[in-house]
Amino acid sequence: MSALPTSLYKCAQVQALDKAVIASQSTTGFELMQLAGKRAFELLQSRWPQASTLTVFCGGGNNGGDGYVVAALALQAGLQVQVYTLADVRKLDNEASLAYAAAVKAGMEVKAYTPNISQLKGVVVDALLGVGVSGQVRQDYAAAILGINSTALPVLAIDVPSGICGDTGKIQGVAIRATTTLSFIGLKQGLLTCDATECVGELVYDSLDIHPSIFETQTPSCNRLEFQPPLLAARHKNSHKGMFGRLLVVAGDEGFGGAGIMAAEAALITGAGLVSLATRQQHVSAALARRPELMVRGVESGSDLEALLASSDILIVGPGIGQSEWSTAMLSLCLEAKKPMLIDADGLNLLASTFAAHAPRENWVLTPHPAEAARLLNISTAQVQANRFGAATQLQAKYGGVIVLKGAGTIIAGKQAIAGKQGIADQQGLSLCSAGNPAMSTPGMGDVLSGIIGALLASDMSISDAARKGVWAHATAGDLSANKLGKHLLATEIYPELRALL
Fold first, then answer.
1. Please, is 307 exposed, middle or buried when counting C-beta atoms within 10 Å of its C-beta (0-12, 13-18, 19+)?
2. Is the N-terminal amide bond of 230 cis, ω within 30° of 0?
3. Each residue of 2-28: pLDDT tens digit?
4. What is the per-residue pLDDT across 55-113, written as a single tens digit (0 to 9) for each?
5. Comma-separated ranges of CATH 3.40.1190.20 domains in the chain
6. Exposure string (b/e) for 72-85, b if CB count within 10 Å is 16 or more?
7. If you ran DSSP here, which 8-state letter would residue 91 be given?
8. In the CATH scheme, what is the homologous superfamily, with its name and number, of domain 7-222?
9. HEC string for 237-253
């Protein structure tokens, strides 16, 4: 078993890697299947060492073949094993057919599955579909999946929980809810986002010891974010606040003052040199009482904002800004300033409805959640969630800059510096943040993220680095905080852990 890699792949790419292994390492597909099954059984033994009974579900493809290998090994190890198939074993693919024959030769009885919850015992091994699902799960497979899910038994899913699309993470009608998922060779990008985050359970990766050169045959479809703290460079002894950016947060229409205050406060904590908050007059006292280090101005008209814009390097626009005439005037002036900026929340809704003509731009970061992304693309939220990678790519193509599509498995789309034989070059790319947890599903978390990314922009990071590092720091601080504080976090409770990461 290995640490989760940073390179992620689509299912077709992993299948190509599989073929490349067979072609270059003088091994057969069946030998590779035997190794995968061996590793799956070893993982099962390590996670459930007291297990004496196994129920294995096998489909008709190579995923089912892996299941037959696991079943035979378990039988040889003295476990009680029952195997159910939903496929015609006379029509199995070559490698799966060999695995089936070996399991039968070892004394295994393979039965056709009929829905009966009382049949399921011990640890359940899901080897039904793997990456083979295309379209909605068939009715007979769906019945088996629902039967497995209705028990309280632990489940080991081999490669991909059956019913999950390995490319998008979307449930194809119904899906296994695994306790542990073991993914082989290339880590599938869909396992880390969308519905998959509910179904994968513990995610374990095994490269099956393939040579690193094999991975050079496929360019990763996405990169998983992983950084080593501290994220901020050490400051020179003769530093002063003016060296770390002048950041202006334009936020907080009437009744929504907290959003702007949190974004500005997060920017201060992340290290922005000078942070100003332009908000409605009624929020000024609250902002200063909360954080006196801020420069807070009550802004009621465009003329009030113009001087602040002129003296700022970076803008954050949108938290709590609403969609009033005041909001529209504020965003209009910010866009006309043409300065690097981050747009969030209702700023994005206004961009979609009123200011789309200002796109595309290369010097902004847009941070939509799925519903805001749907408005920006003029599609439904369900369509966004059906393919988050595709939606992020479409957003970047339409609006430019860097897109942060928030949610379980946040996706960042935009140019990033890639080191190659010809030096450093900017290339389009997708990144995914696998950190973060449900305790962060609370008001203000997005505002804090905006402040973090805005401050990193003010520190002279590229917009791609600021977005990627900001998302990772925010999510990782959330994980560390949840480990200490429990299942529900206030947005500002991540600050101590954020400081440590920075």
1. exposed
2. yes
3. 689 999 999 999 999 999 998 887 789
4. 999 999 999 999 999 999 999 999 999 999 999 898 888 899 999 999 999 999 999 98
5. 245-501
6. bbbbeeebebbbbb
7. G
8. YjeF N-terminal domain (3.40.50.10260)
9. CCCCHHHHCEEEEECCC
Q: Which amino acid is at 12?
A: A
Residue positions counted in the chain: 502
> What CA–CA distance (Å, rounded) separates 339 from 314?
6
Its CATH architecture, for the domain 245-501, is: 3-Layer(aba) Sandwich (3.40)
User: How would DSSP label each residue in 317-342?
Assistant: E-TT--SSHHHHHHHHHHHHHT--EE
DSSP assigned state of 192: G
Nearest to 161 by CA among 173, 149, 178: 178
Cβ of 203: how many Cβ atoms within 10 Å? 18
Residues of the chain with CATH 3.40.50.10260: 7-222
- Amino acid letter at 21? V
DSSP secondary-structure letter at 2?
A: B
| Long-range interactions of 72-77: CB distance < 8 A, separation 24+ | 72/37, 72/99, 72/102, 72/103, 72/106, 72/108, 73/37, 73/38, 73/41, 74/41, 74/44, 75/103, 75/106, 75/107, 75/108, 76/106, 77/41, 77/45
Among 45-49, 70-74, 424-428, the least confident range? 424-428
